[in-house]
Amino acid sequence: MELRVYNINGNDTGRTITVSDSLLGVEPNDHAIWLDVKQFLANKRQGTHKSKERSEVSGSTKKLKRQKGTGGARAGDTNSPTIVGGGRAFGPKPRDYSFKLNKKVKRLARVSALSYKVKEEKLIIVEDFNFDTPKTKNMIKVIGDLKLGEKKSLFVLNNQDNFVILSARNISNVSVTDAKSVNTYEVLRANNVIFSETSIKELENILANS
Fold it and tell me: Mutual orientation of helices 103-119 and 30-44 as an angle, nearest 10°?
């Protein structure tokens, strides 16, 4: 597959870059995408939720009333879940939400997400670039020249230039990552995905060896 290469001024350089169809031209697998996104979000959960059970609530263990002869049900102590201020029955406990997912499934999910972006014409290849100084207006100019609008954009650079990261961090709809760290969730969440020439090749090598 051949893709046009643009510069950061939004101009077509007249060059193209050849990328393997196994990276950007596969038939997307929605189930693999769902599994990978589910794992990503599950791994981000802290799992520290906790509520006090009957044995953990501070309160008297004295019977509230006579247990027999009242015509009603027996009542325990004030820690009972049926009484206001008592412990919670079957409440949440700390747990680990992470789960295992095979590497081949994660790879399929990532290339499926990228293939969707190619079909939607939302994937752009630009020449490698960096900034001399960290200024937000530099990144705003790049976004304007590439006609990305105000929708969320993901820049994937091979060697993350610190000035580029600093220039983008104050823009809420722009994020910067590298080829090693890009994941299915970030690709799907972004409206536009912008790869530098070296980053798309680096990602191709990573996925070929995974």
Answer: 110
Residues of the chain with CATH 3.40.1370.10: 2-46+97-208
Instruction: Please list the residues that pair with 15 across neighbouring strands.
Output: none
Vertex 39: Cα angle to 199 and 120 (nearest 5)? 50
Q: Which DSSP symbol is given to 66?
A: -
What are the E-state strand segments in the chain? 2-6, 12-18, 123-126, 153-157, 174-178, 192-196
Predicted confidence pLDDT, tens digits, the chain (210 residues):
889 999 989 898 889 999 888 888 899 999 999 999 999 999 999 999 999 999 999 988 888 888 899 898 888 899 999 899 999 999 999 999 999 999 999 999 999 999 999 999 999 999 988 888 899 999 999 999 999 988 899 999 876 678 888 889 889 899 999 888 899 999 999 999 999 998 999 998 888 877
Right CATH for 2-46+97-208 from 2.130.10.10, 3.40.640.10, 3.40.1370.10, 1.10.579.10: 3.40.1370.10
What is the value of pTM for the model shown?
0.82
What token pair was written down for 93? Answer: 């406990």
Q: Which two tokens stand for residue 11?
A: 């101009």
Is residue 6 within 8 Å of 127, Cβ to Cβ? yes
